Amino acid sequence: MNPSQLAPEYIRSIAPYQPGKPISDVARELGMAEDDIIKLASNENPLGPSPKALEAIAKALPDLALYPDGGGFALKEVICRKFGVAPAQIILGNGSNDVLELAARTFLTAGTSAVYSQHAFAVYPLATQAVGATGIEVAAKNYGNDLDALAAAVRADTRMLFLANPNNPTGTFVSADALHAFLKKVPTNALVVLDEAYGEYLGAGDAYDSVPWLAEFPNLIISHTLSKAYGLAGLRVGFGFASPEIIALMNRVRQPFNVNHLAMVAAVAALEDVAFIEKSRAVNADGLAYLAREFARRGIEIIPSYGNFVTFRINNAQAVFQSLLKQGVIVRPIAGYGMPDWLRVTIGTAAQNTRFLAALDNAIATKA
User: Fold this and answer.
1) Do 245 and 355 sit in the same domain of this protein?
2) Quick one: 156 and 108 in the same domain?
3) Which of 51, 79, 109, 118 is deepest in the core (most CB within 10 A)?
């Protein structure tokens, strides 16, 4: 017997997640210097990590021979102060992906189902399929979450509903009022996983606090990441909120040391670096507005974004992607999200945004 046949069919049929191309791969494949390449593919913070996080990491290096605090006491203490939750309502993860997968592993099995939107984050169907559950994809509305259709798609066997706000990779957003009304519609037999990975980028008129909803909706799980606005993607640290009962169950399948020591030390410092987050939000807002104007000037269709990226429609999207690569600019093709005619570009620094547009103009002029 081929050993691969020992794995269940639902594992063998998984199409692995494809991340944005790393700079080192492009440099090696195209014979370019890494310093000549900019990566605008994975929604990373162009300002880098919080300076306070870097200082904290440097001080923590001598402790690397010791296991991390498996309970994450110091990090949970900061999270409690910042978000107004109790320690028993927090689960720590190796990035928010880990939190999403822990939720799926805890509550989904073969014979159950999970609901998510078309054009939603690829980890939702992957986490569902990896435990043998059935994924129910609901048609998007204007490239975003159709809340009424999502609620209506919940079946008797549905145990989980994934929803990102803002949504990745399309950048769409639903208001707090609409989201709250949606939560009221979801039957209690289904947990709602609210993925707020890009919440820090919301402007004053759109930002909302979902934590008070935990008391109203015992079937709510909220996930956060420090990979985006906080600039800690390389350390993989995230966290989730839910009722103590849900968190206790998720902790039963969580690995004992799933968040490493440097990640937690950096997270503590980054969460308290208010000035860095404000600067990151301002740089992103300026970049979003600039790219929106420039795309409009070129007659290129975009999906208005509330995250730190813009998704745009372009003829010969794959050829344009390859042309940009050859010019040292990495963006993200999203054909795997059912959008073969679209590309996604992360908001960079002012200089990076200008370079991207110049490379895009060249790609269009040469009919890539």
Assistant:
1) no
2) yes
3) 79
Tell me: do 300 and 342 sit in the same domain: yes
Same domain, 89 and 227: yes
Residues 294 and 248 in one domain: no
Q: Tokens 């399309």 label which residue?
A: 170
Q: What is the CATH number of the domain that holds 305?
A: 3.90.1150.10
Last residue of a domain, one of 241, 257, 272: 272
Asked whether residue 283 falls in the same domain as residue 213, the answer is no
Give, in order, the Cα–Cα distances in Å from 52 to each of 199, 270, 276.
Answer: 21, 6, 9
Residue 185 dihedral angles phi and psi, to the nearest 5°: -80, -25
User: For the whole prediction, is pTM greater than 0.85?
Assistant: yes
The whole domain housing 248 covers 51-272
Same domain, 32 and 70: no
- DSSP-based three-state secondary structure for 241: strand
**In tens digits, what is the pLDDT along the chain, a chain of 368 residues?**
787 777 788 787 777 777 778 899 988 988 999 999 999 999 999 999 999 999 999 999 999 999 999 999 999 999 999 999 999 999 999 999 999 999 999 999 999 999 999 999 999 999 999 999 999 999 999 999 999 999 999 999 999 999 999 999 999 999 999 999 999 999 999 999 999 999 999 999 999 999 999 999 999 999 999 999 999 999 999 999 999 999 999 999 999 999 999 999 999 999 999 999 999 999 999 999 999 999 999 999 999 999 999 999 999 999 999 999 999 999 999 999 999 999 999 999 999 999 999 999 999 998 75
What gap in Å lies between CA 83 and CA 38, rounded to an integer? 34
Sheet with 158-164: strands ordered across: 90-93, 238-241, 220-225, 191-195, 158-164, 113-117, 134-138
Residues 60 and 132 in one domain: yes
